[in-house]
Design a protein that fits this description.
By secondary structure, this protein is α+β, with helices and mostly antiparallel strands. The chain has helices spanning 89-103, 129-150, 181-186, 215-239, 249-252; strands at residues 18-22, 30-36, 39-48, 64-71, 115-124, 163-171, 174-177, 189-196, 201-208. It has a single domain, classed as GHMP Kinase, N-terminal domain (Ribosomal Protein S5, domain 2, 2-Layer Sandwich). Helix content is 28%, strand content 27%. Helix 1 (89-103) packs across helix 2 (129-150).
């Protein structure tokens, strides 16, 4: 491949066009349609004043966050059947990844006896659906918590970290940021990286599809991911209203 450009004209270290349509659905406490190029993921947050049975009556009490992920039947080139009886292994694995990542954003001990459920539904898939779900999911969580924080029901410190995620990979030996589907299927190495706005790692998923790769290549990919996540966090903050208001007070200091 061309060592400096990609099929869609992006430079190697460029994100796809990113947008967050906040308040996309009417009823959810927090709702965001996250668009990463042609990948569109709808993230809705529900807040319930209850807990799973295994968390009830704990001392000290703590809240909980869980996530579910699904792809609509025509989110891809050909129709995939609905997972009606039980989710596939991939679906469950991604849901757990989203949940783990977003729990890292919260101080669950300050959430009270509440459960946040983050539903991430892929409307259109072109690579990077799990990273779009995490990035849009964090924004939906922040939006869902904002009224409770502004009303004084929850302290601002309940939201302790800003979280975003992005994919990176080696394609034709070049380190690419935010892979679309055509790049993902051709990658010799691909990683999904979840980080905080402060540059801390939450999770790294990665594999070599063929030959092993070196530490220097790994470091290059992580550096590229970190730069992309800084840009994504800036876009999240802008979507929250510039200074991000009371919800981001604990993040901004």
């Amino acid at each position: 491949m061309n060592p400096t450009a990609r099929a869609d004209g992006r430079a190697l270290a460029d994100l796809r066009p990113i947008s967050f349509d906040v308040g996309f659905t009417h009823w959810a406490e927090g709702s965001v349609l996250a668009r990463f190029g042609a990948t569109h993921v709808l993230c809705n947050v529900t807040i319930e004043n209850s807990l799973p049975s295994w968390l009830k009556n704990r001392t000290p009490p703590q809240g909980w966050l869980t996530a579910e992920y699904a792809m609509l039947p025509r989110s891809t080139l050909t129709r995939s059947p609905r997972e009606q009886r039980w989710p596939k292994g991939r679906t469950q694995e991604i849901g757990r990844l989203v949940g783990r990542s977003l729990r890292a954003a919260l101080d669950l001990s300050l959430l009270g006896e509440r459960t946040l459920t983050v539903d991430c539904d892929v409307l259109q898939a072109d690579g990077g659906t799990r990273t779009a779900a995490i990035t849009g999911g964090w924004l939906a969580v922040a939006l869902a918590l904002r009224p409770l924080i502004e009303a004084g029901t929850l302290p601002a410190a309940v939201l302790i970290r800003q979280i975003a995620a992005v994919s990176v990979g080696l394609v034709g030996g070049a380190a690419l940021l935010d892979l679309d589907y055509s790049e993902d299927v051709a990658a010799e190495v691909d990683l999904n990286v979840v980080m905080t706005a402060a540059g801390e790692f939450v999770e790294v998923q990665g594999t070599a599809e063929g030959a092993p790769f070196g530490r220097d290549q790994f470091d290059t990919l992580l550096d590229r991911a970190a730069a992309g996540i800084r840009d994504l966090c800036a876009l999240q903050t802008r979507a929250l209203g510039g200074d991000a208001g009371v919800v981001m007070r604990s993040l901004m200091g």
